Amino acid sequence: MVALVNWLAVLAGPVIAKPFQQQQAVLGPSQDIQLRDIHIGDINFIHTTDTHGWLGSHFSQENYDADWGDFVSFVDILRQTMSQLSRDVIVIDTGDKRDGNGLSDATWPPGLRSSKIFNMLDYDLLTLGNHELYTAESAILEYRGTSQSAKFKDKYVCSNVEFIEDDGERVPFGNKYITFETPIQKQRVLALSFLFSFQRANNRAIVTPPLEEIMEKGWFQNMVETNKEEDIDLIVVFGHLPATDPTEREMHKIHALIRKCYPNTVIQYFGGHTHIRDFVQLDSKSTCLQSGRFAETIGFLSINMTSAMDAENPIFTRRYIDFNKESFKHHLSKITNDTNVPSSTKKGGSISRLVEDLRLELNLNQKLGNIPQTYYVSTRPLDSDENIYHLITHKVLPNLIPSKNYEPSMSRFILINTGSVRYDLYKGPFTKDTEYIVMPFNNDWHFITVPLVVASRIESYLNKGPVIASLGIPSSSHHKQRVGIFQKCPFINDPNLNEGYTTEDDFGCHGDDTPHNSQREFDIPNVVQCKEVKMSNEEKPDPMKMVHVIFYTFMELDILNAANSIINNLDLRMENLTTNDCSHYGGDSTKKLLRDYFAQF
Ligand SMILES: *[C@@H]1O[C@H](CO)[C@@H](O)[C@H](O)[C@H]1NC(C)=O
Ligand SMILES: *[C@@H]1O[C@H](CO)[C@@H](O)[C@H](O)[C@H]1NC(C)=O
Ligand SMILES: *[C@@H]1O[C@H](CO)[C@@H](O)[C@H](O)[C@H]1NC(C)=O
Ligand SMILES: [Zn+2]
Ligand SMILES: [Zn+2]
Q: CA 115 to CA 112: how far, in whole Å?
């Protein structure tokens, strides 16, 4: 049961059959690379999303070497400088704060300790993502620890989610909307926040699809009546849903409804969930920024809208800042005109120490092995020695030993779902944290015994079929490319640059603050397999010879369905298999096999 809950914790939302791009550089930013500056406007936004517990920087990726304390320093110094320049800064997060890193996941519930550190940043607007809602414990922690906290009670917005109290009472998870005036420019802001139509919330939370919430519940109409267009300068809609979503288009549909009530107001959206950098222009007075994932990206957005001319044609700028100390320092020195500006504050420094202390307390630095080279999820082809699935199917799964002595001469196929791998595996020490980051879940193995001709077709059957929710973690929760958008930006391959984000969005090809070399993205199938066909002396293996097909227990129904369909399609005279034909295989989990593999280096 525990394993099942853990699996559920990584499943999510809209299903789009596209792989996720994994963008990072192993080397640090080169000193000579000219960074692209941020453009300060009347109203400025700092945006984070999908941090998933990554408060402690990325040790093996210098591109992202800043921790949460460095980020807090950056925000505080930026805000102070902006206020000297009479500019406002609004700092926003759009959810998914756990499930992805040991700092959040080595406690129960996940986020118990890390959310306290996350909340030390003085966010102006906060909300939740689907990862705050998979378990009752998560929802309770988020509601009581953040939404209802003294610090954020008036800043937490959640327009379409309810929390269920111990006595069963349904209460809004946060404010349905808030209004406030920016401290410097005195702009009147109306803020709303929507979570996508998430279907798997635990029994302490209820998510109403955004459109239903807007059209069918009375509060939205009341809000429009009490906040007339002429009383509002800017609407901010931040939430956990993607900017680009060709199938559901939830944000575009929300926009159509809000635009009807506020035909002339500037509306700024902030999105998340699909883990990409993205920026979309909705109309001449409305754009949406999405700021990546895993504390790799800070989204910066500015709007000029206070002069009469700008009010008619507001000017938007956007920048994706790489989450590293050099980038932070660069932008701070540019806006302060001081190359020696300190880029760390006392508060930031103490937060960095808290992160480090938590890391030690949770024993995340414990070294379990060594990773001799980097293995990539999707930026190397599946058949490459640098691909992580290639590693697992060729070097790791062959070490699976069943608990009982099944015939050693038996051929076998071991299948895993690709979603069980969460991140690239970087050259360097293999620590307990690496395990939380790359492969956190334990699994049990089941197997069936079927003719070779059936076994050999299961993998491609599952990969050709529709994306199966329980198998499709990368394509559902991590799909990253702006699907359906025609690639317009040139492929960068410059020997002076490192691999990393080269974002294409509605404003073009130059949104990233740091120029990088482009990375190619390869499709990731639903499942991959380790295939061991034992031949006796025949030239060709007998297709009717019985073999073992071994798989994660939670894939059982998908495997049975595939096997039965193949049996029927081939017209084999066999009864359909049922769960009674599945037996316990035993042996170590893939997680343990992976750890043991790197323990030898
Ligand atoms: C926005 O306005 C400021 C002055 O208020 C100006 O310095 C800046 O250039 C403007 N930005 C753009 C992109 O026009
Ligand atoms: C930095 O210099 C620019 C141009 O000279 C000026 O507009 C701006 O106010 C200066 N910034 C600060 C923080 O003094
Ligand atoms: C066997 O399973 C296949 C695939 O699930 C199904 O289409 C077929 O109807 C089943 N046959 C019987 C006899 O239940
Ligand atoms: Zn996420
Ligand atoms: Zn999400």
A: 6
Q: What is the best residue among 39, 43, 86, 334 to mutate for testing ligand 1's pocket, by most ligand atoms within 8 Å of CB?
A: 39
Query: Would you list the domain boundaries of the chain?
Result: 39-361, 367-478+520-598
**CATH code of the domain made up of 367-478+520-598:** 3.90.780.10
85 lines ligand 2 (CB under 6 A): yes
- Within 223-352, strands assigned E span 234-238, 266-271, 277-283, 286-291, 297-304, 315-322
* Residue 157: closest CA among 51, 236, 264: 236
Higher-pLDDT residue of 25 and 154 is 154
For ligand 4, a single-atom ion, the residues with CB < 5 A are 50, 96
Pocket of ligand 3 (CB under 6 A): 561, 564-565, 568, 576
Say yes or no to pLDDT of 51 above 90: yes
Nearest to 44 by CA among 281, 329, 270: 270
Asked if 39-361 and 367-478+520-598 have one fold, the answer is no
Burial class of residue 573 in the structure, from the number of CB atoms within 10 Å of its CB (0-12 exposed, 13-18 middle, 19+ buried): exposed
Tell me the CA–centroid distance for residue 581 and ligand 5, in Å.
Answer: 36
For position 112, what pLDDT does the model report? 98
- Nearest atom in ligand 1 to 304's CA: 1
Mean pLDDT of the chain: 91
Q: Would you tell me which CATH number, out of the four given (3.30.450.40, 1.10.10.10, 3.40.50.300, 3.60.21.10), belongs to the domain 39-361?
A: 3.60.21.10
pLDDT category of residue 407 using cuts at 50, 70 and 90: confident
Residue 158: the pLDDT is 98
Mutate to test the pocket of ligand 1, among 36, 37, 38, 40 (most ligand atoms within 8 A of CB): 40
Residue nearest to atom 6 of ligand 2 (CA): 337
Please tell me the pTM assigned to this model.
Answer: 0.90
Structure-block tokens of residue 432? 């307990």
- The pLDDT value recorded for residue 30 is 52
Establish whether residue 135 lines the binding site of ligand 2, counting it when its CB lies within 6 angstroms of any ligand atom. Answer: no
